[in-house]
Specification:
The chain is an alpha/beta fold and about 230 residues long. The protein is about 30% helix and about 30% strand. The protein folds into two domains: about 5-70, Hypothetical PUA domain-like, domain 1 (Ribosomal Protein L25, Chain P, Beta Barrel); about 75-230, SPOUT methyltransferase, trefoil knot domain (Alpha/beta knot, 3-Layer(aba) Sandwich). It has six helices and twelve strands. The strands form two sheets. It has a seven-stranded parallel sheet, with helices on both faces. Helix 2 packs parallel to helix 3 and helix 2 runs parallel beside helix 6 (about 215-225). The mean pLDDT is about 95. It binds S-adenosylmethionine (SAM).
């Protein structure tokens, strides 16, 4: 059986795993002294480690081998995503982390149903990213940032804006060797002014097909085309 993966902010020769991570390892995965674990620090380092003690709901682990590992896209992928209601952001962060997004930046946009996000929800999105990184074998943790107004999206080196009726297809315009920013609108779509602004900041409108996708579907489809679609 493959060793369980655990996230630790810093890999040291011996360390304690505490809090939620320890609770998951002990209660759900039933980790015990002698078990092997794969540790990752969310910044590109991995380690093979062994549990040497369990005490008061925490685990002491000893690192046996430490190395750099990358299962990342060729270049960073930032997803600018309009605030969505309900559990949709959770779904996008979970699947987007699996698909290799490096950063999620939430946007406040005119036609969005949700206009704000509670700090607790942002924290939950970050925990979802950790869980998805663990599950998918990522070695880098994506950041979850924002929300910022659409007007504050910076100029980008390469940008793709998911836009119904756009002429270009992703494969025609995307260069996977350069950092890319993706933008996906809210349930009601971006306004014409928001589209113009994003185009002025370097985003090229791209189509995701002839059907109207839900925003969360569009976000994952666009991510899949730029990461999985290029074999990364
Ligand atoms: N009537 C809205 C419009 O015209 O923009 C539909 C919004 S759609 C539910 C939510 C977001 O998903 C859009 O803002 C866009 O970013 C993306 N999207 C949905 N379907 C798409 C498609 N076929 N091609 C490109 N982007 C799409």
């Amino acid at each position: 059986m493959r060793p369980h993966r655990a996230y630790v902010p810093q890999i040291e020769d011996e360390l304690w795993i505490e809090g939620r991570e320890a609770a998951h390892l002990l209660r759900v995965l039933r980790a015990r002294p002698g078990d092997r674990l794969t540790l990752f620090d969310g910044q590109g380092q991995e380690a093979q480690a062994r549990v040497v003690a369990v005490e008061s709901g925490r685990l002491r682990v000893r690192v046996e081998a430490r190395y750099s590992a990358s299962r990342e896209p060729l270049a960073p992928v930032t997803l600018y995503l309009a605030l969505l209601k309900g559990e949709k952001l959770v779904d996008v962060v979970r699947m987007g982390t699996e698909l290799g997004a490096s950063r999620f930046v939430l946007l406040v946009s005119r036609r969005a149903v949700a206009k704000a996000i509670r700090p607790q929800k942002l924290e939950r999105l970050r925990r979802v990213a950790v869980a998805a990184a663990k599950q998918s074998g990522r070695t880098r943790l994506p950041e979850v940032q924002g929300p910022i107004p659409v007007a504050q999206v910076p100029a980008v080196e390469q940008g793709l804006l998911a836009h119904p009726n756009a002429g270009a297809r992703v494969a025609e315009v995307h260069d996977p060797t350069r950092p890319v920013a993706l933008a996906v609108g809210p349930e009601g779509g971006f306004t014409a002014e928001e589209v113009d602004l994003l185009v002025a900041r370097g985003f090229t409108p791209v189509t995701l097909g002839t059907r109207t996708l839900r925003a969360e579907t569009a976000a994952c489809a666009l991510l899949a085309l730029v990461t999985a679609g290029s074999g990364r």
